[in-house]
Amino acid sequence: RNISTSSSSIRTAFVAEDNSIYFDYRLNSIREIRGLSANLSNTFSIVQTYENCYDIFIDISNYIYCSLPDYYHQVIRKSLNNSFDQVKIVAGTGVSGSTTFMLNWPHGIFVDTNLDLYVADRSNNRIQLFPFDQSDAITVAGNGSSLSTINLNSPTAVILDANKYVFIVDHWSHRIVGSGPNGFRCLVGCNGLGSAANQLKYPRAISFDTYGNIFIADGTNNRIQKLALMTNSCSKFD
Predict the structure, then answer these.
(1) For residue 20, which of 82, 51, 62 has the smallest C-alpha distance?
(2) pTM here?
(3) Closest CA to 139 of 151, 190, 182, 53
(4) β-strand pairing of 56-58 with 117-121
């Protein structure tokens, strides 16, 4: 069903375990995160923000995160359990940069079960890992990584699977890359941009369902692509 809001722009949405929906909201001078009840009957304000969130994430401790790319180059966090909890800056300094404690147009965010924060640091062409409550990040993929990873070109989203392998939307390379036991490799869009079933065009976001299938927001192709998990697809024999 269609869900109508009065917002003039919505970049991202996050569905919580209780089926309530959280989204960025913009109307005139108002910028904030809003929630929509599970029965879709009413909306409520969560926190005002300086600008529209590019991405929203809720961790297992019920903190909500928002990436602010356009002018602030930060990721902020607020508790959903405590309305008096102050907004905290958990990544970035408010000024664009490429050091370990700075970000440049942060986009997609993901928080794992250890409460470690992963950020698609778009204009720095890298994925940054901020250990819980630390301001210095480790580059896990892209520019500046001490590991053997993969070159990235404007990454816009990052997620982890249950084995903590990293999956990245490599926006300007029109592909999805992922890590595994043997390092990073291209998964989709490995032959360049296009609209075929195995191609993407400026993909924006990625998500898993509970069965391990991958869903991709395929931006300029104006579609959602599903990659089905193939179980028992690998033989133990060569």
Answers:
(1) 62
(2) 0.94
(3) 151
(4) unpaired
